[in-house]
């Protein structure tokens, strides 16, 4: 038979694209539900205010209004859960002060703790009626002083966000060897100490969050369409923790989802309220966020203030690193909030270097701001930024070349295990090779010569590097359980072979731009030797997929893909038994190759895949004792994280008169292990870089610390990166497969975001170094900020 | 009080009495039911709602439906003809110019007018012309490539 061309590892055009480029995508707000009601939320205009009374009487009389609910109506409904515990009694490593598990009610009854905190919901026949009636809900606010600034939360006399969190402390946590680090710093020839502020960001997925809940009174079933990266997690948290409704009577569907970047992982107030209200009213209830609501309520990212100290030997070896970070968690504990500035941050501070000793201590604080949780990279960009900024600052202090300092400290090439000082064990790496390739592409020697010439002409030209590492393929369940996770982090993959040989795959991973329908089809097509057209990928529906932990932490290929791969292996194993019977051979003598089951060494004695699948469902001539059907399910729980790495270089020119930073070149050499579709991986890297550049140059959520208002509350005020501020990126790769999973893939979703921010900031610092600048404390490096730095340096 | 609005969308006539405050984008999505045109912001920054009105790229959140009375509108659903993709649509597919797909209809409609005006745009010009359209997934790299591909593959004007 004809061999089907292998497709895995090739840049196959995406199968999902035809529907998106013709306007036939099906996002939550596109789902048509005749007779549905609309929800409009009444939100706090104050950052901190007690609720004296809520008068809903006028709103209830508004034409078209079906119901108005406040928190006191939602009896029996519990707090939104925080899925990560940090308590000493649970033996979570590194806990210095227990996590304050403060309540987070779907509609707050006692007080509002950030601008946008929902306190009531109006449900009406139309969107317009709901919005109009929401204006008629009168809340008697007792306005309190607010605190939004990360450091000021802990100041004496600062307003208290929660009674259950004295001093606004959410937790205190540490990792590493404090004594060894202190000793290294004390004894070092050179130490460098810097303050590093990683500002708050807004995820800004282009599709605002939305949900539509439909309760069917006849069956008692609730269907929730929701913008989710993990519909099963949404269902579990909502049923088991918040509403106490039977999980098997709830179906959660996350159809096409317009980007997530972490912000659509979490269980939010609105989804819970609409689901609850639909059950009360026995009608469909839907809600779609305005962009302003997205700014006020989507979980935000980053917001660290860090003091870091690095100890160096004269010849450029890193002897020690001490990091003290305050992490602003916002007003409430979002679903995975405590994990981000702890286990996804501290554990990455070893970077790609052999460091003498490391100690990190983190204090999580509450403030009157929107909750902070995972945003693309989640903890790892913050770690990479601290380390890569410190390495370049140390090089400046030693008057050494930044490439030379890195080379002196790289962990040598290895595969299997490298034990870091911060708990995690790396899987495989060849850090110097990626860096060398990056230097070669950017032509580093020539750049320094060009830079010298440019400086003589008064130009501010600079280069910055980032040799980053990240932890993804999240995550081994036992390990994360021991660290405080309330969930396992395996993935499921079910493969159903139909009688005709067509294949449907049900994956617990969720695609919201990642292209799973293409990459997973490539994997299945290659493994079964069938054309991709015979494969359908189903995701995002708890009614179809056995279970799923979803997509975040660059886990879909490595964890979700491996689960599918395991099921494919089981399919082939069963197929061998069926084929052996048909060929009158022993199953041990059957191999699967080129889309057929054949007798080893005798390709002429073979049965095609389609004949085996048909036989499985028409089992007339069939092995005794073998179940009919050809369908297998696997759950894959990884044995370790995977650790992609790479080297990025950014070349910038700074306008001396305006402070504007222009990116001249951007080179990315990433090592994400084996690559399933290079086109898709490149696309991921591009988008990640843009988000990292955005943080470095323009983005930042700004709160007014006296009123607590989010000043950057619209797309007019929050500076999203635009096409004209970004270059064409030069991407390349090295390939160091991971030994952790059989596919050898590590993960590619977050590398760009992690790598880009330090590369850009390092480049600007290098450009400004002739003015005596060796560090810039805060981002973004807007024209205004850089201009001020240049002016300050001139004096 | 409702006012009449009559317009042609993708060659089909529509006539409805609508609230004067109804935005054109909500008319297209909810009244007519063409959901390919998206809403990504409240302030006319994102461009996800871009449609063609008389050949001009217009953010359909910046107009009331009643203001479009008598207009000839093309949305993303009307771009492919007889099952054949428009070269811009094809370009976005060929060059991986989309990931989540949410900004894509607006990007394609904005590119449509761009290529009408500038049949062979430079990279800089494409980037400048896309200032009114935001994408969070692609970093714009492959959107630029997609529009370049379309420019090269557009049929010559008669």
From the structure above, extract its key features.
heterodimer; A: 795 residues; alpha+beta; Aldehyde Oxidoreductase, domain 4; Aldehyde Oxidoreductase, domain 3; 3 domains; 6-stranded mixed sheet; 18 helices; 29 strands; globular; B: 158 residues; Ubiquitin-like (UB roll); DNA polymerase, domain 1; 2 domains; 5-stranded mixed sheet; 5 helices; 32% helix
What is the correct CATH architecture of the largest domain in chain B? Roll
Low-confidence stretches of chain A: none
**Which shape of chain A, going by the Cα principal axes?**
globular
Number of helices of chain A: 18
Q: Provide the helix percentage of chain B.
A: 25-40%
Question: Can you name the CATH architecture of the largest domain in chain A?
Answer: 2-Layer Sandwich
Give the DSSP E fraction of chain B (strand runs of 2 or more residues): 15-25%
| Nearest-integer average pLDDT of chain B | 97
Q: How would you spell out the order of helices and strands of chain B?
A: EEHEEEHHHH
Identify the overall geometry of chain B: globular
Quick one: CATH class of the largest domain in chain B? Answer: Alpha Beta
Number of strands of chain A: 29
Runs of chain B in which pLDDT lies below 50 for 5 or more consecutive residues are none
Structural class of chain B: alpha+beta
| CATH third-tier fold name of the largest domain in chain A | Aldehyde Oxidoreductase, domain 4
Q: What is the fold named in CATH at topology level of the largest domain in chain B?
A: Ubiquitin-like (UB roll)
N- to C-terminal distance of chain B: 47 Å
């Amino acid at each position: 038979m004809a061999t089907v061309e292998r497709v895995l590892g090739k840049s196959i055009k995406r199968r999902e694209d035809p529907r998106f480029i013709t306007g036939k995508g099906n996002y939550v707000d596109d789902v048509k539900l005749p007779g549905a009601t609309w929800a409009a939320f009444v939100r706090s205009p104050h950052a901190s205010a007690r609720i004296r009374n809520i008068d809903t009487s006028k709103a209830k009389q508004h034409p078209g209004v079906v119901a108005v609910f406040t928190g006191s109506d939602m009896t029996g409904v519990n707090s939104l859960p925080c899925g990560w515990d940090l308590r000493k009694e649970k033996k979570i490593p590194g806990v210095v002060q227990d996590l304050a598990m403060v309540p987070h009610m779907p509609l707050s009854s006692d007080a509002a703790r950030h601008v946008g905190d929902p306190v009531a919901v109006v449900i009406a026949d139309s969107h317009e009626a709901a919005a109009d009636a929401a204006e008629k809900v009168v809340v008697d606010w007792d306005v309190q002083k607010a605190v939004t600034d990360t450091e000021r939360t802990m100041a004496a006399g600062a307003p208290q966000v929660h009674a259950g969190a004295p001093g606004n402390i959410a937790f205190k946590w540490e990792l590493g060897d404090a004594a060894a680090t202190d000793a290294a710093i004390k004894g070092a020839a050179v130490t460098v100490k810097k303050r590093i502020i990683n500002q708050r960001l807004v995820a800004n997925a282009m599709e605002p969050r939305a949900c539509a809940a439909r309760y069917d009174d006849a069956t008692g079933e609730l269907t929730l369409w929701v913008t989710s990266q993990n519909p099963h997690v949404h269902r579990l948290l909502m049923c088991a923790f918040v509403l106490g409704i039977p999980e098997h009577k709830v179906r959660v569907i996350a159809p096409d989802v317009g980007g997530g970047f972490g912000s659509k992982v979490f269980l939010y107030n609105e989804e819970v309220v609409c689901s609850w209200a639909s059950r009360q009213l026995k009608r469909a209830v839907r809600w779609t966020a305005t962009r302003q609501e997205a700014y006020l309520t989507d979980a935000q990212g980053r917001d660290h203030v860090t003091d870091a100290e690095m100890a160096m030997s004269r010849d450029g070896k890193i002897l020690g690193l001490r990091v003290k970070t305050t992490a602003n968690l916002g007003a409430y504990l979002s679903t995975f909030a405590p994990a981000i500035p702890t286990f996804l941050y501290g554990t990455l501070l070893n970077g790609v270097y052999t460091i003498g000793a490391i100690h990190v201590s983190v204090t999580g604080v509450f403030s009157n701001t929107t909750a902070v949780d995972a945003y693309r990279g989640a903890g790892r960009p913050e770690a990479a930024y601290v380390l890569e900024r410190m390495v370049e600052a140390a090089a400046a202090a030693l008057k050494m070349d930044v490439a030379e300092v890195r080379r002196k400290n790289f962990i040598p090439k290895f595969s299997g295990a490298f034990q870091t000082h911060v708990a995690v064990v790396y899987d495989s790496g060849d850090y110097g090779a990626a860096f060398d390739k990056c230097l070669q592409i950017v032509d580093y020697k020539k750049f320094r010569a060009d830079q010298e010439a440019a400086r003589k002409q008064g130009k501010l030209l600079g280069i910055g590097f980032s040799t980053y590492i990240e932890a993804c393929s999240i995550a081994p369940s036992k390990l994360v359980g021991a660290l405080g996770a309330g969930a396992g982090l395996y993935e499921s993959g079910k493969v159903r072979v139909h009688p005709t040989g067509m294949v449907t795959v049900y994956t617990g991973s969720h695609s919201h731009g990642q292209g799973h329908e293409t990459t997973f089809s490539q994997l299945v097509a290659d493994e079964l030797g069938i054309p991709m057209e015979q494969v359908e990928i189903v995701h995002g529906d708890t009614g179809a997929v056995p279970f799923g932990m979803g997509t975040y932490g660059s886990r879909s290929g490595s964890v979700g893909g491996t689960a599918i791969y395991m099921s494919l292996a089981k399919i082939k194993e069963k197929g061998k038994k069926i084929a052996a019977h048909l060929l009158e051979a022993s199953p041990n003598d059957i191999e699967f190759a080129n889309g057929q089951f054949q007798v080893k060494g005798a390709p002429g004695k073979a049965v095609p895949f389609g004949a085996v699948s048909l036989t499985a469902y028409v089992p007339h001539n069939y092995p005794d004792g073998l179940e009919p059907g050809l369908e297998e399910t696997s759950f894959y729980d990884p044995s370790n994280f995977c650790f992609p790495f790479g080297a990025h270089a950014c070349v910038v020119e700074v306008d001396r008169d305006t402070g504007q930073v222009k990116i001249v070149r951007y080179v990315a050499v990433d090592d994400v292990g084996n690559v399933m579709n290079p086109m898709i991986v490149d696309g991921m890297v591009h988008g990640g870089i843009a988000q990292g550049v955005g943080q470095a140059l323009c983005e930042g959520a700004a709160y007014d610390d006296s009123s607590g208002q989010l000043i950057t509350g619209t797309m007019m005020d929050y500076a999203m990166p635009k096409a004209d501020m970004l270059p064409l990126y030069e991407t390349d790769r090295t390939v160091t497969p991971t030994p952790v999973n059989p596919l050898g893939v590590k993960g590619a979703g977050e590398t760009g975001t992690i790598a880009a921010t330090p590369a850009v900031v390092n480049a600007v610092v290098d450009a400004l170094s002739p003015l005596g600048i060796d560090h810039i404390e805060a981002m973004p490096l807007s024209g205004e900020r850089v201009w001020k730095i240049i002016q300050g340096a001139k004096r | 009080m409702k006012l009449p609005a009559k317009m042609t969308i993708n060659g089909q006539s529509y006539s409805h009495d609508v609230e004067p405050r109804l935005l054109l984008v909500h008319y297209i999505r909810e009244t007519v039911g063409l959901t390919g045109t998206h809403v990504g912001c409240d302030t006319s920054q994102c461009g996800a709602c871009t449609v063609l009105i008389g050949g001009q790229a217009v953010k359909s959140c910046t107009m009331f439906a009643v203001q479009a009375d008598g207009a000839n509108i093309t949305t993303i659903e009307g771009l492919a003809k007889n099952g054949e993709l428009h070269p811009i649509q094809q370009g976005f597919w060929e060059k991986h110019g989309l990931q989540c797909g949410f900004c894509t209809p607006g990007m394609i409609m904005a590119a449509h007018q761009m290529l009408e005006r500038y049949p062979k745009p430079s990279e800089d010009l494409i980037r400048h012309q896309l200032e009114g359209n935001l994408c969070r997934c692609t970093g714009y790299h492959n959107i630029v490539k997609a529009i370049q591909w379309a420019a090269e593959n557009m049929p010559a004007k008669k």
